[in-house]
Records
---
Amino acid sequence: MPLILQRLLHPHLATGAPHRVPAVPLTADAPPAAAPPRLHPAWVVVFISAWLATACNVPLWREVAQLPGQGSLRGWGFAVAFAFIVAAGNAALLSLLAWRWTLKPAATMLVVMSAFGAYFMLAYGVAIDASMLTNVLQTDMHEAGDLLNGRMLGTVLALAVPPLWWLLRRPVQRLSALRHIVHNGLLLAGAIAVIVVCLLLVFQDFASTMRNHTKLRYLINPLNSVYALGNIATKPLRMDTHKLLPIGRDAQLGASYAGQAKPPLLVLVLGETGRSGNFGINGYARDTTPLLSARTDLVSARNAWSCGTSTAASVPCMFSHLGRTGYEARAANFESLIDVLHHAGLAVLWVDNQSGCKGVCDRVGEIITSQQKDVATDAALCPGGECLDRVMLQDLDTRIAALPAEQRQRGTVVVLHQMGSHGPAYYKRSAPENKKFGPECTSTSLQECDRQQVVNAYDNSIVETDQFLDSVLKWLAARDSKSQTAMIYVADHGESLGENNLYLHGLPYSIAPDVQKHVPWITWLSPAMQSRTQLATGCLQHDLAERRITHDNYFHSVLGLMDVKTGAYSVGLDIFAGCRQVAGVGKAAG
């Protein structure tokens, strides 16, 4: 062996040191495992973005697969380009958050958000926008509990655990501040470049698809949720949310109050998740409203439409003077119908068996049944802590008597906000004696049930509403000797029951199916109230049966019925005004 090689291999020979073979221990520990190499932050962004664009966007790609022409080569090209656009959009977002202390938390948040979003879009066919997130943020614990199930847990774990496990086990390179800025800037520029190139390649198809299939934009996960959260967060920049503008401060009571022998008593039943087409009184094939249908003194408007597709959107809108278009475009919040009635000097009471009045009764106050210990413990009406709507009639006389006497002598308006047919646990919304249709779906994962079982459970909740409304009418009739009574029942929005694989409600109004917007509207006037208002039930039945009305009419119709004079009132939006004029009474002031 050449000398130089010997010295390289055996350096001890170069010093003349004796050759010793190193001792080998009898039991040697395994060498420590090599630490995984540190990843550049850009690779974390790329991997997470790809996972979000693929696994977490199954609802989007399922919808894309159903587009016309998707089986062709051009269709596949569009789908691939769309996928790159979504992935690049995620990467652009993450590039803004890819800093030393924020990358992993931001990626984790987006993955978890996407997992939950994907579940709800898959399970119920919902789309995510600002209105949907607002509804989620205002959901109470009982409603949230109804949505929890094993399928949700499995879906969220399957979509969130793999990328998060990988992310938590991979160390990330630490870059200097300058290198972070440069690399994040390049990553953002690269993501934008990918988006631009892909758009140019399929621009005609992309523009046409987004225009004709607007639901797709609400399915791009998690960018849909990020955009919606941004919309909610920036709302104070678009409107003054701290200012409440007055409305109806000029309100006065009309001539009908002069020398009245008995004050008016109006009950406004605010329905929840009511589908007009599933009410027997409106022509539904099933007799879901036997008690209401047996009466001849009701006015059912079969062509009524909601202001929104969720409680959070509809309730403030229907109690507003602005109407749907004006409400959505408002630059500030206004007082509500409840405030105007109070300004006029009437007694007002809000009883809530749902998730609150959404701000419309804040200046008057509300009684929430779930917070009344003596009520919530009623085993018959509140099984499991969730009360049937009939519980709102308990102690109602006592609650009204607690209102100021001077106001009660003028007149009283009571609002009863139902739990109604709130899903997905429809089977909880009816008492055993009202379960007329079976078998019911008893799962909150509605897609696990046969659709007819879902419909059965929902229809039973309408039977329960029928009994509740009949109980309200009997309660009012028992007070005819002291008051001139009336009732108006209107639901806040409708519901999807599996049509086109859609469940629940809350889709953006522009793309929501009619079943989420077509609502029941039922009016009852006692003979004394008909005489007081010069409104004949027969005239209203003829005039309103098929006439298109909307929540835009609600504010003005209630004021007209209660003979409240204010500049905020519009006779053209009062659904009762036509019959009042037929009866020989001139147009109301305002």
Note: The first strand starts at residue 240 and ends at 245.
---
Amino acid sequence: MAAPKKGRNASAQSKPGRSLALILIAIAALTGGMFASGHTTPRLGIDLAGGTSITLRAVAEPGQESAINKTNMDTAVEIMERRVNGLGVSEAEVQTQGDKNIIVNIPKGTNSKEARDQVGTTAKLYFRPVLQREAVGEAAPTPSASPSGTGSPSASGTDKAEDSATSGSGTPSATATTQGRAATDALKADATPSASASPEASGSPSAPSTSSSGLEKQYAALNCADPKQRATAGQGAKQGESTIACGQDGKVWSKFLLGPVDVDGTEIEKAKATLDTQGASGWQVDMTFNSAGAKKFASTTSKLAQQTSPQNEFAIVLDDEVVSHPFVQGAIAGGKAQISGSFTQEEAQSLANMLSYGALPLSFQEDSVTTVTAALGGEQLHAGLIAGAIGLGLVVIYLLVYYRGLSVIALLSLLVSAALTYTIMALLGPAIGFALNLPAVCGAIVAIGITADSFIVYFERVRDEIREGRSLRPAVERAWPRARRTILVSDFVSFLAAAVLFIVTVGKVQGFAFTLGLTTLLDVVVVFLFTKPLLTLLARTKFFASGHPWSGLDPKRLGAKPPLRRTRRPSAPVDPKEA
């Protein structure tokens, strides 16, 4: 029975090269992916790369000062976090300061400008009927004030026939021509509406009222291509009043004369971007209203459907700017609707994001915008790296003095772990928005000790076997099962602590927890696929197998017992007389 077991062990020992080849291939693949993606360095957080800090002050409606409370402030923080994170900005921080202020820190990088515009869009979102609409020419080269950064989802300023849309029954319906748009968004009923209110339900707002002569003069004089006029258009308008507004369709600015508010943005339960795989609509935005919003929406759409363009359109207004103006094909009951048209995926997701999180419970004013330099963070990072280098140097000296030749294995394992950590962090930046901040750097430094501890556990187990009188190759294999259990238990505890810390904390502390958890997982990978196989290979060399004094495995220096060998008992001498 012993022979087959010996054969299996010999087979396991003879193929450590497979594990080494696997981890080297993984490093090469990650490195190649890093260079192919163009992200050769990890993304840095605001404390290392600098960024923008915005202070917003809550402003309540007249007579509703009690609206500024902890519940509404917390809700506003959550909405702003989702706005910024929905744009893919890494490590944006949103937190309250005092009773009325919210601090938003946006790091430099992709979409940071768009995120600032999105966070600054703190007014409520409304649906208003379009009374008049007119294109005023190409947009100015200055950035748009649109919260989405793209304005209305159209990419052309020429007059073309627009996409046709279908109603809830699936039959095509005629669409009106547009001014200055390649394709107007279609607003239609969801194919599977839930049982809700009908168009005749009570509680719907009154029909759009006509504007006064003064408002018509303002509309006639409005030039939406002028950034100053865009910034002031429609400011201070009440929900029950008609107003003017601007909106951008691709490169074309349009001015709008809008009726009173018909549906409040707070009456939207959810909105999401979906891809229509069954029809030709492409990307679209699905909306779901609450019961009150469903009644208002059904009543209003039944009235708009009887009008001609542009008076059959709904303007979605956020921060006094029209972000979309889909037309209505028919009365939409059931509380579910779709906005479809010439959307790209990014445009559909941006509009859905504004519809979902655009209705803040409070209005906010931008008190200050300051630029945060990375000088202080850079100095702290420099000091932290120096401290880490000193600590690593002390570890190296200890390994060289105490473990001698085995220290080469430990140092190579640390290099492999560092290579894996660096490449994965660089790839996680564009993949999930991971940003390296100061606490994350601390987590990586702490991980050096965790990784070195795993090597020491294994080396000491091997030395224990040699002290028992075994030769190196059997000692390496017999020590592995016990060392493996200890390493797994230790790393499991470290990973569990990192996971709990990541869940229960917020902000930068999560960076420390994430890095600690990642490096703990990589420690297991390195020990199993690199350290153990490498020691198995080196155990076959004469330098280590013979117990050279500088190998770190000298039996005499370790106080090893005599080799474990079976000895035969001497036979009793034969009496010559008996012979």
Note: The first strand starts at residue 51 and ends at 59.
---
Amino acid sequence: MAPTRHRPWLIRYVVLLGVLAVAVPLVATAVMGPDSYLRIARDDPGRLTGLIATFVRAVADLSSLVTVGALVSALVAGKLRPVQDAAARRQLDVAEWFEPIVVRRAAACWVISSGLLIALDSADSNGYALGRIVDPQALWFAMFSGDAGRSWMVTCVAAIIVLVTSVLTVRWIGYAVALWAALVGSLAPVMVGQILVGPRHDFGSDSGIYQTVAGQILLGMAVVQTLRVATGRRPRVLDRVHWRSTATVLLAVLVVTEGVLLWFKLAGSSPFADATGWLSLTQFVALGLLGAGLTAVHRGRITAGVSLLAGGTSVFVAAGLAMMRIPPPQFFVPTSISQIFFGFDLRVPPGLASLAGHWRPNLLFVVAAAVAVACYLAGVRRLARKGERWPVGRTIAWVLGWLVIVVVTSSGLGKYSGADFAVHMAVHMSLSMVAPIPLVLGGPITLALRALPAAAKDAQPGPHEWVLAVLHSRPLQALYHPLFVFAVYIGSYYVLYLTNAFGTLMRFHWAHQLMNVHFLVVGCLYFGLVIGVDRTPHQLPSLAKLAVLLGAMPFHAFFGVILMSDGAIIGDSFYQHLELPWKPDLAATQHVAGGIAWAGSEIPLLIVVVVLALQWAIQDGRAARRIDRHLDNGLDDSYDTYNAMLERLARRTETTKEHR
């Protein structure tokens, strides 16, 4: 793609779109006035507070969008840094300075706006006028009496991490870490927003997670690439071979999740009967503009394409910000206590029939499982096309691991895991000790490195080089240190369940999902050290693996004993608030949970011991066959050398005797 010329009109066009994205929610706030607060039984903080909070929120969302887009653009268009030592592995760096400059400026704006929103959004949601938050006690109460202030604290910290990282380094892995922080910061205020309220909010929250991640990446990249074209730079990301398929998938995710969110927010009402429906339909129009822009870019019409992409981004963001200021219909649907916490009712107690038959898809894990299995099978197919063979057992293990995850999160086990502590413990043990075993035996990283083509010497690095950069990075080496993994794997049980954290986190769907993800990831890290097929940053000898495995057993047993013998009920306040149709015996349920934690930990660990022994036997057999081949081919003279040494020792002994 040839370099583009400087286009001042395109810069003015982007600025105009930014003004539009800010103006629309401001108009919505002004039009709604006190009604947007009074309809949901909140105190009106005054029009000025609402307008300022809306303006700063728009600035924060736009700056986070640009930050993520610049980070992704820098990562996708990274370059391999030459090294003096030809045998050394080349390092990935950011290719040029445009993206780092954009990241620094956008992140600085994000830090300031999110920091202001800690106070402003807290005041807006608590009905405090601006003059009232000058009082430190009132401000402190507003910040910590609700979720809004705390979510913006998380966002502000994430933005600071991005800003500091972008100032200190231009290394690819540094930007990868900053991207993770930016996505977490982008998710925090979304998770405590409108998708947290009402029946079926479990579907809404999971869809919101996927939409936020996909939107930040696709829309952010669209803005940054538009800025590159406007300033006369080549849109390097648009040159990438996989850009079209990746962008199409992200757009499809936005379309599907927007449909789910529309269904959730309307709560059975017509999309034409409420402002929320009209704004959501406007977002579908914006997605249509994005699709037209992608099509134009793929056909080589770069200027027209990026103009449509920027326009679609502005409309999508403007409608989304305006929607935040308008209470959606699902706010006014009669809701039970169970629906408030879980998003659905639990009318019958957990039993064999309900656990096996009452399925409710956990969208977060179902989608993740489908993507993981599809990518794995695509890698196996690519290897087959190259004439390489991939062990069938590894494929079966990978599919089996994700099947376990889907079953325990989407069957009655997942549905009742929030209301029954014993079921929750069964799900916890399955995610941390059962599913990880087949997953780490599947060897996904090894498959990725074999299936993904390596970039040519002078070509731009691609996914193969990205995977290698992550595997050899210092953050991963620190994360995968055996002592750290062991401490987190064991300590998570005690920190979560023997403190007040469990009862607090169980009140929110996103927090429950976060616990599930934590259990799964830590379990994969732990068992990856012991029996994983993929090579870890810290390779342990066989005896050390056995020690790591056996060392966890007494901690699990002791944890189970604590649950069975402790008089204090874990999460007692939370379970008392559920007001379920049946009355569970919390003490008996906790006793059963302790038994599950005890027995459920011992059995998988014993299975892993067997797997570890089989791996040792296989490794010894391979080593023996390799030595035999070397002996047959005359390539190994270790036995001859050993026999010669014995002969020399024998002659030395005889010589000593003769001298005596």
Note: The beta strands are 79-81, 91-93.
